[in-house]
Write a structure and sequence with these properties.
Elements lengths: L4 E4 L6 E4 L4 E4 L14 H24 L3 E12 L6 E11 L3 H11 L3 H7 L3 E6 L9 E6 L3
Antiparallel strand pairs: 1-2, 2-3, 4-5, 6-7
């Protein structure tokens, strides 16, 4: 997978996210000091799940030769501050002349996209302070996500 680079300057809270070939902007809403120039980080996370879900459905339907005309995933993301548990609710719309078995199978496949699988498993984080991207000097903080 490509490295994603996030860069922020003095403009509150406009952040440029980039790969080797793409750039998008993340931001916060005006009411908390941002300029609302892009999605919030949590929205980007939910958007990653939504995009991965519909891409997975498209690939699967194409491989099976099924008449999926379009798929739409609406993702709601909530976080309970007391339990620290997150909930992603994915509401799917499948358009096309699909029979009940095909629709049921696509519903199963929606939960198998790579982003979904990543989010449902324990996640480890390794945050390393470096002088620049070529540096190997590690001042790291390792944390593990737990239930």
């Amino acid at each position: 997978m490509a490295t994603i680079t996030a860069s922020i300057q003095r403009t509150l809270y406009e952040t440029h996210l980039s790969t080797d070939s793409q750039v998008i902007v993340a931001d916060e809403p005006v009411d908390i000091g941002g300029q609302d120039k892009g999605m919030r980080p949590g929205e980007l996370l939910a958007g990653s799940l939504a995009a991965c879900t519909v891409m997975t459905l498209r690939m699967y339907a194409d491989r099976k030769g099924w008449p999926l005309e379009s798929a739409v995933a609406h993702v709601d993301y909530t976080n309970d501050p007391e339990t620290k548990r997150s909930l992603f609710t994915v509401r799917l719309i499948l358009n096309g002349s699909l029979n009940d078995e095909q629709r049921a199978r696509l519903l199963e496949m929606a939960d198998r996209c790579p982003v979904h699988r990543t989010l449902q498993n324990p996640i480890d984080f390794n945050t390393i302070l470096v002088e620049d991207m070529r540096s190997t000097r590690k001042l790291s903080s390792i944390t593990e996500a737990t239930d």
